[in-house]
Write a sequence for this structure.
């Protein structure tokens, strides 16, 4: 059995990790840490877990966690994981970081976008970007995985086949993404109250100011083998879960929707969680509660553009599910283990 501890277990990502891991046949839960709820049973915090797990939330105790764990998931705000990851790696415990501290390979980029000094720059080069569809073999050998952000996951998977094939121009890429409110976390904020978000739909972090922008540009640049700058605009939708991303590219040459769809099907033919749609378009309800990413592509011959749409559950393929997929690869398991559940519907 893989002994797992979750640092920051009571946020939305941490609890989604726990919910899925409870049903994982190769996992035992060692420790759950929480500053806010230390000393409380986890099912007191989340009553949905009553009779499924009886663990108590604890303060951080490195010695106990190291002794009892094979892998640690750090589900913490940016800036915190970088200061504690060494404690686990130096003692032989693998780490999957759910935050942003090890996603960007350029330390200066990280410090510019996140406005803090990076405490472990030596680990940035070692960390593997945990998108299995692109870095599966590297993840298998990793001891530190940087789990991708939710928006970047939806965008990178949607763009990868086009950029790898060189079919589109790289100087005018536009990304328009919509996310449910759980993507903002569980902390209280006025602008996320029900009365503020219900029956409303708004953009935020416009003009390239969202912190996921450099992460997206980093990975798209690697795919295109040139430095890319994109236009990325996120939106908040009054729903709990889900991300829908729409990407716009200018074609280098004329190609049909059918040809591109077949190219996507071939590109992802061995990927268990990527589904290419031919006769319908992605919608968040069709991936809710699953580790799936649905993608569809369409060519507008009139404008010479191609539009790609992707949908994921931001808490699963965009966070917890992808992290478990990475864990499975790191420990030599079938990557579908514990994740082979269809989406919830309706």
């Amino acid at each position: 059995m893989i002994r797992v501890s979750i640092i920051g277990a009571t946020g939305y990502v941490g609890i989604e990790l726990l919910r899925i891991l409870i049903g994982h046949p190769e996992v035992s839960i060692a420790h759950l840490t929480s500053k806010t709820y230390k000393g409380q049973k986890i099912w007191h915090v989340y009553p949905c877990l009553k009779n499924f797990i009886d663990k108590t939330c604890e303060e951080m105790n490195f010695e106990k966690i190291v002794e009892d764990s094979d892998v640690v998931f750090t589900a913490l705000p940016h800036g915190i994981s970088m200061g504690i990851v060494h404690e686990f790696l130096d003692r032989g415990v693998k780490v999957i970081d759910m935050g942003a501290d090890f996603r960007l390979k350029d330390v200066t980029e990280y410090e510019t976008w996140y406005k803090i000094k990076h405490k472990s720059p030596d680990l940035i080069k070692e960390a593997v970007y945990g998108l299995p569809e692109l870095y599966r073999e590297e993840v298998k050998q990793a001891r530190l995985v940087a789990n991708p952000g939710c928006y970047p996951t939806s965008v990178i998977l949607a763009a990868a086949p086009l950029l790898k094939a060189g079919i589109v121009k790289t100087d005018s890429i536009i990304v328009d993404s919509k996310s449910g409110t759980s993507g903002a976390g569980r902390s209280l904020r006025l602008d996320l109250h029900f009365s503020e978000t219900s029956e409303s739909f708004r953009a935020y972090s416009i003009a390239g100011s969202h912190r996921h922008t450099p992460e997206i540009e980093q990975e798209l640049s690697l795919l295109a083998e040139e430095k890319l700058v994109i236009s990325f605009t996120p939106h908040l939708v009054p729903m709990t879960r889900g991300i829908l991303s729409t990407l716009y590219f200018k074609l280098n040459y004329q190609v049909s929707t059918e040809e591109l769809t077949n190219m996507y099907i071939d590109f992802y033919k061995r990927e268990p969680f990527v589904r290419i749609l031919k006769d319908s378009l992605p919608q968040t309800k069709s991936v809710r509660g699953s580790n799936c990413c649905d993608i569809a592509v369409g060519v507008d011959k009139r404008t010479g553009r191609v539009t790609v749409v992707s949908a994921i559950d931001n808490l699963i393929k965009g966070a917890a599910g992808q992290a478990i997929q990475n864990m499975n690869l790191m420990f030599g398991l079938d990557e579908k283990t514990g994740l082979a559940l269809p989406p919830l519907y309706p």
